[in-house]
Design a protein that fits this description.
The protein has 2 domains: 31 residues; 56 residues, no CATH class. It is built from 4 helices and no strands. The mean pLDDT is 77.
């Protein structure tokens, strides 16, 4: 009886030892990395261009100089200047901001 119990215990230990690294790898792979400021700024610019100021729509919104400047700032890498302006423009237009993750 002791041999069966010892064998069962050893089997459970081995199974657990094999399962833990697999679970850890799966947990790491399923994490979504947050967007960089540059990616987020570009996402905001894309959303604005697509949904608010779409040049292909029947009635495109008039170009907003501050938003156009913010998009240019994003493209130049100055995200600190571009992000707040684009966020405000999208929220004012009734849109939900894209997720940063």
């Amino acid at each position: 009886m002791k041999t069966q119990t010892a064998g069962l215990t050893l089997g459970l230990i081995l199974a657990t030892a094999c399962a833990l690294p697999i679970a850890a790898v799966h947990a790491q792979a399923s994490k979504v990395l947050p967007m960089s400021d540059r990616q987020y700024c570009q996402s905001l610019a894309d959303s604005y261009t697509t949904y608010v100021n779409d040049p292909n729509s029947r009635r495109p919104a008039p170009a907003n100089a501050s938003v156009q400047s913010a998009i240019a700032q994003c493209l130049a890498g100055n995200t600190a200047a571009g992000i707040p302006v684009l966020e405000k423009a999208l929220v004012n237009a009734g849109f939900t901001l894209p997720a940063r993750s």
